[in-house]
Amino acid sequence: MTAADSMTQEETTLRITRDFKASPEKVYDAWTNPEMLVQWWGPEGMTTPECEMDVSAGGHWKTTMTSTKEGGAYTVSGIYKVLERPNRLCFSWGWINDGVRGHETDVDLTFEAIEGGTRMTMVQKVFADPEQTKNHDQGWSSSFNDLQRFVEA
């Protein structure tokens, strides 16, 4: 049995739910409009100087985030799989290191109208190991703080 065999789906699946005081349309658009996305994308303390988005089923997207403290650049890319404004958005996700795209996961977002706003649920899977799941949980949670500030402004 390998280490991968002993990992549970729970350990390699990330689920985050966040409520926003904004309409599902506004929250969805913050993910799919490049002018909006660059204003919140990435963990706190990061900026997104590079953003390419072909927002269509099968369309490619790519962003480069830079740290305002360390100055390092982090590039991630994927393909849009489902675009159902304002209810659901799905895309693939893979980091690019030294020109090589690494392990790929799928990100599935749902946007549910609730009293006073939107409940967004994000499920990202399947990570290569529990450490990647944990790291992405920290990164997304921080990014969603920026998203919350952006859509509720």
From TrEMBL:
Residues 21-151 form the Activator of Hsp90 ATPase homologue 1/2-like C-terminal domain. InterPro entries: ASHA1/2-like_C, START-like_dom_sf. Pfam families: AHSA1 (PF08327). Gene3D superfamilies: 3.30.530.20. It comes from the Bacteria. Belongs to the AHA1 family. This is Uncharacterized conserved protein YndB, AHSA1/START domain. It comes from Pseudovibrio denitrificans.
